[in-house]
Amino acid sequence: MSVIGRFAPSPTGPLHFGSVVAAVASYMQAKSQHGKWLVRMDDIDTPRNQAGADSSILKSLEILGLYWDDKVLFQSHRQAAYQEALDLLTDKNLLYRCTCTRKQLQGKAYPGTCRDKGHSSDQQHALRVLCNQQAINLNDEIQGKFQQNLETEIGDFIVHRADGLVAYHIATVVDDAWQNITEIVRGADLLDSTPRQIYLQKLFNYHSPAYAHLPVAVDKQGYKLSKQYHAKPIDDEDPVTTLLLALEFLGQDPDKLLAQENVEEIIQWGIKHWSLEKIPRLDTIEVKSS
Ligand code: GLU
Ligand code: ZN
Questions:
Q1: Which ligand is nearest to the CA of 118?
Q2: pLDDT, mean of each 10-residue run, the chain (290 residues)
Q3: Which residues fall within 8 angstroms of residue 43, CB to CB, at 6 or more apart?
Q4: 219 Cα to the center of ligand 1, angstroms
Q5: In the chain, which end has fewer C-beta atoms inside a 10 angstrom radius, N or C?
Q6: Structural domain boundaries of the chain?
Q7: Domain over 4-78+177-286 is classified CATH 3.40.50.150
Q8: CATH superfamily, with its number, for domain 80-169
Q9: Cβ(35) to ligand 1 under 6 A?
């Protein structure tokens, strides 16, 4: 089977170093296996979208020489497919309405409070999917073995939000399958989400892709460089430095002389020397200036 990788940014702000790392790693992992690399805009969480961020991200990727195959898929255009997936779970009697507030749950595993309540649809509600005690196992290509018992560690999780939006897990799983993604390379902050996604893949009879969860770039305080924490956007004027810093972060040990080369040369060097084994087996790595 030919390799298909993807980079799935949320257009909540310009590209920053943390997301460049995921873009470079997913690109190199696909291209070093002569595969395709797709870009998907995870823009379903509309309240978090920032106007113009999608085009700014795509422009930065082009400046970095990270050209994608096929057309960019926008999740905002995929509502019908997500609804179909939710309908399938409804048909299997796996969904129920939940009216609990986030405050009531205090971030703990959801104890199934609304499982048997039979809430009417008049009340504002989220939809949760029934989980079970069966352990979900993952053999991550970077982080190694990871196991989760969804019922005790996560609880029945939300697949359709109370504000009417489809939940991230549904959209991701439906689109990864639709795009025939064979290998998902993304930040280790999503490792904890992966068993939920594998569980949904099983319910939908989808093939599960391979997973590689990268160390996440954090600041001195240990916070993920993210748009929420106002991580500095990357400098579109200096893609060479950005690429070299990303390759270095990923343990690829780029040749110092590459600093005098152009973007294309660095991309070619990266593909040729790419090795997943060299990526530090860590879940976070501190980066100096953010
Ligand atoms: N859109 C998500 C993010 O920007 C990534 C989703 C994924 O890779 O599954 O964090
Ligand atoms: Zn509830």
A1: 2
A2: 94 94 98 98 94 97 98 98 98 97 84 95 96 96 97 97 97 98 98 98 98 94 72 89 97 96 98 98 84
A3: 10, 11, 49, 54, 74, 75, 76
A4: 19
A5: N
A6: 4-78+177-286, 80-169
A7: no
A8: HUPs (3.40.50.620)
A9: no
